[in-house]
Amino acid sequence: MEVDCNHCVFEDSSELGDLDAVDAKDMRLEAQAVVNDVLFAVREMHVAHSLQNAVDVAHINVETREGNRYCLELTEAGLRVVGYAFDQVDESMMTQYHETVYSLLDSLSPAYREAFGNALLQRLERLNQNGR
């Protein structure tokens, strides 16, 4: 989800942290969009409110259908695992960035892959029924 700020008017630029932030994606908004997009295919997922979230970084807690918990970091570089528990960031972790939440969850959770495939199949079946 992108926010078009070309026509926005801000009384105080500190509202977004700095002047360059007007052109950048707000990772806090992006994180909530990520959660909303895949919540159906995981056991639990929410933006981590106890960790520092900012315009350039946000954290997301996710529990897969298998019961594994992760803390994810979302930046312009993508998403990556930064901890193996909710609200946990291990600065020494050097995990791979994924461009999308789908790619990341696909690598972590076979049950996510199955739930996503089932949802896609149901959507295609509905489209097929509505097209008749």
Write up this protein.
This protein has a four-stranded antiparallel beta sheet, covered by helices on one side. The chain starts with 26 loop residues before the first helix and ends with a helix. The chain has three helices and four strands, in the order αββββαα. The protein is an alpha+beta fold. The chain is globular, with a radius of gyration of 17 Å.
Key phrases:
single chain; 132 residues; alpha+beta; 4-stranded antiparallel β-sheet; 4 strands; 31% helix; disordered N terminus; GSKIP protein; GSKIP_dom; GSKIP; GSKIP_dom_sf
Most strands sheet: 4 strands, antiparallel
Q: Can you give the helix content as a percent range? A: 25-40%
Average pLDDT works out at: 84
Number of helices: 3
Family: Belongs to the GSKIP family.
InterPro entries: GSKIP, GSKIP_dom, GSKIP_dom_sf
Organism: Polyodon spathula (North American paddlefish)
Protein name: GSKIP protein
Fold blueprint:
Layout lengths: L26 H12 L5 E4 L10 E6 L5 E7 L2 E6 L17 H8 L1 H21 L2
Antiparallel strand pairs: 1-2, 2-3, 3-4
